[in-house]
Amino acid sequence: MAKRKNKSRWIVFLVFLSPFFSSALTAASSDENIYDVNKINAELRTDADAVIRNKTIRFEVKGESSAIKKVKFAVTVFNRDGKHYGQLYLSYDKFSEIEDIEGKIYNADGNEVRELDDDEIKDYSAFSDYSLYEDNRVKATELYYDVFPYTVEYTYEVSYDGYLNWPSWYSRGSTDPVELSQFEVLFPADQKLRYWCNRDSSNLTITNEGDKKLYKWSENNLSKLSRDVYGDDIEDFAMIVKIAPSNFEIAGFKGSMLSWKEFGSWFGNLSKGKGLLSDEAKIEIKKTFDSTDNIKKKITKLYKYMQSRTRYVSVQLGIGSWQPFDATYVHQRGYGDCKALSNYMVAILKEAGITGYSVLINNGHDRLPLIQEFPSNQFNHVIVCVPLESDSLWLECTSQIIQAGTIGNSNENRYALMITPEGGVIVRTPSTTAIQNVEQKIINVALSAAESKIKVSIDWTGDQSDYVNPISVKSIPLEREEWVKDLFDVPDVVLNNYVFNNYTDTKINLTMELSLPRYASLSGKRIFFNPNLMSRRSSVPKDVEKRLSPIRYNYPYMDIDSVVYFIPKDYDVETIPGSININTSFGEFSSKTLVDADSKIVFVRKIKINDYSIPAEKYTEYRNFFTNVVKADRAQVILIKRN
Amino acid sequence: MNYVQKLRLVYLFLIILSISVFAQDAPIEWGEIPKADLEMKTFPQDSNASAVILCDYGESKFDNELNLVFYHHLRVKILTDKGFGWGTHSVVLVTKDRAEEIDDIEGMTYTLNNEGEIIKNELDDDDVFEEKVTDSRTRYRFTLPGLKPGCVIEYRYTIKTDHWNYIRDWDFQHSEPVLWSEYRVQFPKRSFGFAFVTQGYEHWNVDEDLEVSQIFNNPASSYLGEKIVNCCLRRWVVKNAPAIRDEPFVTTTDDYINKVEIQLSGYSLIRTGVRKILNEWDVLIKELLESDNFGEAIEVTSDVENLAAEITKDLPSPFDKMKAIYNWVAKSIVSTNQNRVTADKEVDEIIELKKGSNAEITFLLISLLKAVDIQAEPVILSTRENGKIQDMYPMISQFNYVLARVVIDSKPYFLDAVNPLRPYDLLPVKVLNVKGLVIKPASIHWVTFISDKLNHSKSHIDITIKEDGSLNGKLEDAFSEYKSLSIRSDLSNKKDIDIAKEELGTESLGLTIDSVSISGKDSLNIPVFIRAHISSQDYVQQNGGIIYLNPYLIHRLKDNPFKLKDRKFPVDFSYIKSETQVINVAIPDGYEVKETLTDKFLQVKNFISFSRLVSVENNMMTIVNKLDIKSSVIPEQFYNDLRTFYSQLVDLQSEQIVLAPKAVVPVQAVVPIVAPGEPVKTITPREKNGKKKK
After folding, report:
1. Do B538 and A631 make contact, defined as CB atoms within 8 angstroms?
2. Closest chain B residue to A577, measured at CA
């Protein structure tokens, strides 16, 4: 900023030292004072760290490849905890440009204190750690003041040259109260805007503005929410509106989202001619399988071949975020991202006379299900599906270690868009049940106060093996040993030997022998130990007033522990924990400790969660369930020395 | 191996016996990969290696344009796919005004096919990505094609610069083992001077200072005044260096690896005359003081004067003024988290913008103090994560942080006003135990920042047990200065009950907090203090009238923080601290103590100790625990003892008290016996540890 004149600085100086005085000085100069703090509804102000005064997104569609988004964001900050609203962080890429960032600070009376200067805006490249290259960049700045309350206001414009995604609107993005939040979409009057709202009754108004129609959603006076809702999804307490183009163009590629079929065609067209392989590659591929192999065996061999030749490297440049590298490129370099590797896999399959398709999917923790009635880009990942007579075989091409047919819990149990030559088709990925995803431990303990000797065998199946698989095959010994030791919630694990047996990547066994010098605790003539050696749960779900969203799991599961203790001959059992057995609609838990003959104690624990999610209204029951689990997992066996 | 740290400081103009030699060949040649390297399957010396750096070679040398040319050639054996990371490389250059330029990037992957033939896969020029990080910096990034476990990769490039002070430093150790690392620096002896600082634990296989001749053409020769120029060749080689992997409780592993740091100290060319870049400390101090973005940036402007007067109004003592100014700056100016020793903006702008870098905030603080006639000066330092300072050469590039030193009545205070939650007298952990240089005229004054706080955490718990096994407790928990700071930093918006649950860890033990009050959340000068009433129906385990109780309801150490068997570097706790915990257990009427806890004393030399004193009187058991970390740094040779110490600590906090109904004896009004029930001198639980030797 150019140096200000001394006088104006002096005023600023007074302003922050003495708000009362300053208001007297400058009040006359401002006419509207819309950000006067007193204009905020008293209820919203109570206890607030910050109040969102105005969050307006105005999106104007200019044509099939151009649009402008104008944003205004004004927040009154009441204390230090609200100061972060002064930080602005805007990302952009090849298809968007950020213009006219303006920032202002107003004091409590709503008088302007200062303006953001252009040289306070930083511009730098920003991309995810997993990428080799992306063209994403960021403009960022920050505005602060030191006399509370004050208001920060930002306005900026984003112009789009080519688009696929249109902005979404969340009435609120945090628990802080909101005075006004609105979404305006200016759209050609002769066309129909496609939108989706998470609420049944959206307060949409449509008015004419020139030759366009103005669609408007808004919410106001949203009160502060309790912090407890942080356990919930924002989708549950915010109103959300998503809009999507019908016809669009990006980097010269025209497409339509009027149906899944058409959107799929657009994506399919991007990889037209990208599936060619060199002659040398073709020969190699033919060598990987025998003509007598059945189709599943062929696919397995081809998939293994692809895995052995490639690794995941992400390069996202312009339309490259959507268009895969061609198969030759991947073959030559031995790397690619999800769409490039999938495209390569499809090309390899084709060479063997097998038809596979790329599938667009939303990978990750299953947050929001696919909105089927609203064809639009809801995807972040690509996998491959090979439709077979009875069943389909699914291939996740970014992993070098999993086997054909397993796609991991971040892909399973959801709708996705399969890209066929005829266009997009909605398909559902396989799901699993608790008894497929099991962790079973069988443990033998020769208990001693000095040093307990232990033998353990653990089997993981299904999704439970997802986490074990990379450790068992990819990690360095140091990490692997650390990981194995961390399976015990006990200090000082002396690992004598351990071995992983990966029967398949979804059935893994770990067998080990170890000793625990500090497992049983000796106090005088008594020995104390927790019979639950390896599966202690210590966290109780939060105590919340009202849960809004379902409790989501990555997958249903079942854990079974059976531990046999051989206790020292000269000790008797003084106390054992009671048995517990809980059955609910969402899961079951049982834990029991039995004293057997011959100085033997047997502990058996089983926990099972039936489904991918538990409804919100069952939250209290769910919390009680786990409170009881935690309690049971804490109980001890007490032995007493025979006189 | 003896890991006593050896810091070797090499003097630039120290000339040994100068002999003229021909330049030696580089240790490896491009494209010549020994078959054995390709056939290598494992690396027996280090089973954790996922790659082995076969050779890392660098040289810095002048060309005919008198550019400094840095050549880097790296060759790596990749053993497993975890080592693929070595196939991706990035270099950041200063590209503003083309200060640095990268050239000739080449990369190649070599694999053996089934027939034992070498397959080459070359890096395509199109696959080198250029990323404009900021206006002045560009990152070049590439990944090699065709990586497979077992392959050998190599890449090389040159970086050319006419900014001689951009000369590259060299690290000889990395996260994977290095078989050969070599760096050479060659420069015209009469015309250039460089200062070299070396450090490290590993043996230097070569550390030589040779005299060689280099032929220069125009225009370089005209600057140098001759064609055949006597050059100084510095050469360092480290062979078979082990991998450096992260360990907890260290400042930064950078403090322990072998490396060479270099700075241009001066030059003398025909057309420029003598230019001294690197001077003595006093000259560096003088230059800083005169610099626009350092000494001159500390300016008592009229704005500063007015502001300082307003802040300190009605405060008579300089000490109170200092505190008021510190508090104002810490609360009003937001730190933008940029750590560097110089300021971009003037103090008046910082006052207006309400945000600034660490240096800008410190300069404003000093200006305000000066405005009210308090002696204050900047102190420059290198934070813990930035690595130790070598004070042999005045290299400004080593420093990354500035604090203020204030003197009132000849007592010095160090202030760092970037965090509104930290009181004036508590320094950030990142500056503790590091050295700083006070920047004031005509003196070279080094200081070390040590926390003078006792960091004493105190807790007091009263436990009452009822016959039905229910527990009631009253607890008071006062946190140390640094712990209070971390709690305050994490407070935003939390309810007292949630803070208490988190800090006390009650939920997982089945303890309910019935009421809680927390003080010291907002006031910075008193510790965070939690008072709570707790209760539980099931914390205590009970069976047939016998009651089992672990009295360590809170702050129980459940795991040993030191998990690794061996350690190479000292353990650095950052600061000393102590924890006292007093636990009173009221024994229910009619009950007697069947098993009690016993007195304990553990220590590792004079570094750390723990004591427990247990007494029973009038149906009240009192357990007094005290942990003292008396030294912030514990040398690595005591690591095993320290690890055992913590194991024992975990053990003795898992011990239980056993209470049982008294045998049917009439209850007396006065209980005269000190130790009821069993003879107290039973076997103490941890005697077994005394015998154990692992």
Report:
1. yes
2. B541
CB A323 within 8 A of CB A271: yes
The residue behind tokens 């089973």 is B47
- How far, in Å, CA of A157 to CA of A167, rounded? 13
At residue A279, φ and ψ (nearest 5 deg) are -60, -40
Cis bond upstream, residue B412 (ω within 30): no
Name residue B608's beta-bridge partners. Answer: B604, B629
CA A595 and chain centroid, separation? 45
Q: Which residues of chain B make contact with A540, given a CB cutoff of 8 A?
A: 507-508
Among A13, A478, A635, beta carbon nearest to B48:
A478
Please check whether residue A9 is in contact with residue B348, taking contact to mean a CB–CB distance below 8 angstroms.
Answer: yes
Which of A94, A138, A333 to probe by mutation at the B interface, max B CB count within 10 Å?
A333
Task: Residue B148: name the closest of A280, A132, A505, A335 by CA.
Answer: A335
Which residues in chain A have Cβ-Cβ distances shorter than 8 Å to B310? 17
Nearest to A523 among B307, B546, B658 (CB): B658
Runs of H (alpha helix) within B408-527? 481-489, 496-504
Q: In A464-586, which ranges are E strands?
A: 494-504, 507-516, 521-523, 526-529, 551-552, 557-566, 571-575, 580-583
| Cross-sheet strand order for the sheet of A357-361 | A392-395, A381-387, A357-361, A415-420, A423-428
- Taking CB atoms and an 8 Å limit, are B146 and A146 in contact across chains? no
* B133 close to A (CB below 8 A): yes
The answer, for B312 touching chain A at a CB cutoff of 8 Å, is no
CB B128 within 8 A of CB B139: no
Q: How far apart are CA A13 and CA A363, in angstroms?
A: 53
Contact call for residues A203 and A218 (beta carbons, < 8 A)? yes
Sheet with B541-543: strands ordered across = B541-543, B546-549, B657-661, B591-595
Partner-chain contact B510 A636, CB within 8 Å: no
Secondary structure of residue A45 in the 3-state scheme: helix
Blockwise average pLDDT, block size 10, chain A, 643 residues: 34 34 39 87 92 97 92 96 94 92 96 94 80 85 95 97 93 93 95 91 88 94 78 79 94 94 96 93 93 92 95 84 92 94 97 96 82 95 94 93 89 95 96 96 95 96 90 87 90 92 87 94 90 92 82 93 96 93 97 90 97 91 94 93 88
Asked if pLDDT for residue B544 goes beyond 90, the answer is no
Cβ-nearest to B541 among A475, A525, A636: A636
Of B148, B331, B595, the CB nearest to A523: B595
- Residue B565, Cβ density class (10 Å: 0-12 exposed, 13-18 middle, ≥19 buried): exposed
Kindly provide the ipTM of the predicted complex, given to two decimals: 0.84
From the list A12, A485, A523, the residue facing B656 with the nearest CB is A523
Of A10, A142, A539, the CB nearest to B508: A539
- Phi and psi at A221, nearest 5°, equal 50, 55
**Contact indicator for A300, A393 with CB cutoff of 8 Å:** no
What backbone torsions phi and psi does residue A597 show, to the nearest 5 degrees?
A: -70, 175
- CB-CB contact of A412 with A429 (8 Å): yes
Distant-in-sequence, close-in-space partners of A573: CB < 8 Å, separation ≥ 6:
A567, A595, A601, A637, A638, A639, A640
pTM of the model: 0.86
Interface A-B: count of C-beta contacts within 8 A: 177
Chain B residues touching residue A17 (CB < 8 angstroms): 307, 310
| B355/A334 CB distance under 8 A | no
**Whether residue B1 has pLDDT greater than 70:** no
User: Could you give the CA distance from residue B233 to residue B183 in angstroms, rounded to a whole number?
Assistant: 10
DSSP B128: -
Residues of A in contact with B510 (CB under 8 A): 630-631, 634
